[in-house]
Amino acid sequence: MLDDLVAAIRKRQAILFAGAGVSMTVGLPSWNTLIEHVADELEIDLSEFRGTELNHLTLAEYYRLKQGSIGPLRSWMDRNWSIPEEALKSSRVHELICKLEFPIVYTTNFDRNLETSFELHGREYVKIVNAKDIARIQPGVPQIVKYHGDFDDDSSIVIAETDYLDRLSFESPIDIKFRSDALGKTILFIGYSMRDLNIRFLLHRLWKTWVDSGYERDRPQSYIFMLRSNPVEQAVLEQWGLQVLTEKDCPSEQALETFLAKLSKAVEGADDRETRT
């Protein structure tokens, strides 16, 4: 099942799309931590809301309305979403991401963990947050594209409900770049919950672009790694042209590392066989 993905990685024709699950492997707080912080700062009694009635998008929107800016919340996140270098040095997941040498890594994470990991492992990169950064792309230099913004630029952060709704046009410079990058390459999604409607929308739009082109059969195969097998999600995602990958009989907290280790070993094995021939 991994043969096509391994071949694409070896040919540098694969893009990695990394979500919050990647940073959570080194202790990044969950969205629930953000909800609790905002509720505490704005004196909201969470017990008045049932579990699904209040999400971080709506709460961040309310925060902006009350505080006049998302800036203070962004500053709090920057402090609390930063992982010590020692933790990143020991992160096998981040080490494997660097080792696999994807030419382009997209991430919806605001934190700097991927960038710091590249630096710790001696890998050059260019960070792309906006249209100005796209002009800085250099041949052969890996790109880290901050799809939902970066802590260094408040205006780039996509965290509140309005931010997400504005992105549904799929017409920002970063969206246009993604469509261009993705049309001709294999994509591997890791670290995502399929409850993320923004990512589901992105996947659907990409699939629809290929369908409308009339060349859907020529689309490179793309993949999504999920911590647990879910036949309902799998059927929907496969309809959109994504192959679902899982690690059966593996604890969820070890699944991503196990998968990336197997993938890296398969790429190395293919390289060794080519060298011998």
TrEMBL record:
Database matches in InterPro entries: DHS-like_NAD/FAD-binding_dom, Uncharacterised_Sir2-like
Domain of life the protein comes from: Bacteria
CDD domains: SIR2-like
Pfam families: SIR2_2
Name of this chain's protein: Uncharacterized protein
Naturally occurring in which organism (per UniProt): Microvirga lotononidis
